[in-house]
Amino acid sequence: MLICDTHAHYDDEAFDQDRELLLGSELKAGGVEFVVNMGASMEGARASAAYARRYPKHGPENGAGTCVVMYAGCGIHPDDTGVFEGKETTSGLRYAHPDDVMQELRNLCGQEGVVCVGEIGLDYHWMVETKEVQQKWFREQMRLAYELQLPINVHSRDAAQDTFDLIRENYDAGRFTGGVIHCYSGSLELAREYVKMGYLIGVGGVVTFKNAKTLKKVVQEIPPEFLVTETDCPYLAPEPHRGKRNDSRNIRYVIEAIAALKEMDTDTCAQVLQENALSVYRI
Ligand SMILES: [Zn+2]
Asked: Most buried residue, 89, 102, 157, 214, by CB count within 10 Å?
């Protein structure tokens, strides 16, 4: 089965003990073709770009084809948008001006193997930053994506309508660059609107949960060409590993669930899902 992960966080401390082993051999041995590591903070964006440098498709590390291929997303998660407002990050980074944050993101996004601006969006669950701050920097990072002609990877929690409205505004302004609505949790109606614009729907472990009725409906109704697989690891492990640390190998359960919902052959489904991931990130 072809496995690809369009949204992962291997820079998370949950992988501190065995990251080298996972990226260096175990993921590949488990059938994972490639992973897009998503930056959420500036530290995460730097780490993601570094993985893409270390594990490129044709790099020396991959000479024997034993390590997974890594790509990166660089962006600032809504919870971390305070960095644009002069707040110090957890590791002590502080920028004098928001342009300095943007410039570093621009530089990172220009590096080999960085394939999208992400993860960016809105999170009204934790409300670490005000709606106004989150919205401002979501808009600005979508502008950056347009400037660099990169797709976006979007985080949205308890903010489905506002996320949609801002993406629509960006689209209507002629700044569509494609992308993925990651870990989709909205309605079927909104999913259809995203697909009409040309965005893809990111599906992860949640699709295997019994109570995920709306997401299952979305997967059933949206054409397979508009779906991509992801983990959001270390979070959101699918059944039968729910609650444990997640990694990209578990995407096989996600593919099986999608194939069953769409009444497709599993390998054919995996093939389509991988083609979607390659094309949205222009890999
Ligand atoms: Zn994430």
From this structure: 102
266 CB neighbour count, 10 Å cutoff: 14
Residues having C-beta closer than 5 Å to ion ligand 1: 232
| Residue 53 in tokens | 């440098």
71: closest CA among 251, 282, 240?
282
Distance from the CA of 132 to the center of ligand 1, in angstroms?
Answer: 21
What whole-number percentage of the chain has pLDDT above 70?
Answer: 98
Q: Is the pLDDT of residue 52 over 80?
A: yes
Distance (Å) from CA 14 to ligand 1 centroid:
14
Centre of ligand 1 to C-alpha 76, Å, is: 11
Interval between CA 8 and ligand 1 midpoint (Å): 6
Pick from 105, 120, 204, 116: nearest CA to 154: 120
Q: Which residues does residue 181 pair with via DSSP β-bridges, in sequence order? A: 154, 201
What average pLDDT does the structure give for the chain?
96
- Give the predicted TM-score (pTM) of the model: 0.96
Give the Å distance between the CA of 262 and the centre of ligand 1: 25
Q: What is the pLDDT of residues 122-140, one digit of tens each?
A: 999 999 999 999 999 999 9
- pLDDT band of residue 64 (cuts 50, 70, 90) is low
- b/e per residue 172-197 (b: at least 16 CB within 10 A): eeebbbbbbbbbbbbeeebbeebbee
Q: Which amino acid is at 18?
A: D
User: 40 CA to middle of ligand 1, Å?
Assistant: 7
Structure tokens at 55: 């594990």
169-219 tens-digit pLDDT: 999 999 999 999 999 999 999 999 999 999 999 999 999 999 999 999 999
Q: Which domains does the chain have, with CATH numbers?
A: 3-280 (3.20.20.140)
Q: How far is the CA of 246 from the centre of ligand 1 (A)?
A: 12
The rounded distance, in Å, linking the Cα atoms of 90 and 99 is 20
